[in-house]
């Protein structure tokens, strides 16, 4: 390495010291992370030390900023790839957990059986309104028209049915 190369390296290093605050601010703004910006600035210094012929670089300041942009872009790509990888893994984990356990299925079957029994206990008109509204998915107006009652009566029957079912489920869960 010639003394000429050393003076160019020294000029680069001095320029980096002078521009360090501005370069770090740029990296922090792009990356959104001060410690990561510091790491990228250190990497920038290492890259400058590895330049084989610094005398060929005419605008050293522009070169520093371009190199910093490239390093931050690389970091953002790594972050994006890592996030995509972990998102896929999270999806896989959620899929594995999506199936109910045997215990959950048994409890759900018992609750469904209790709910069915509670619905069977309802007065016939109340049961019919409830099933049309909540199981068949008809609107209150459609239920009222089909059964020849008012929409207020539909709402009253649905409230009564829900209250009755909740009471029965609560009684059984208390046991």
UniProtKB/TrEMBL annotation:
Alphabetical keyword list: Sigma factor, Transcription, Transcription regulation
Q: Which domain of life is it from?
A: Bacteria
Q: Name one Pfam family in it.
A: Sigma70_r2
Task: Give residue ranges for domain RNA polymerase sigma factor 70 region 4 type.
Answer: 114-165
User: Does the record bear Transcription regulation in its keywords?
Assistant: yes
RNA polymerase sigma-70 region domain residues are: 20-81
NCBIfam families found in the cross-reference section: sigma70-ECF
Which PANTHER family does this entry report, sorted A to Z?
A: RNA POLYMERASE ECF-TYPE SIGMA FACTO, RNA POLYMERASE SIGMA FACTOR FECI-RELATED
What is the name attached to this protein's record? Answer: Sigma-70 family RNA polymerase sigma factor
Q: Which organism is it from?
A: Brevundimonas nasdae
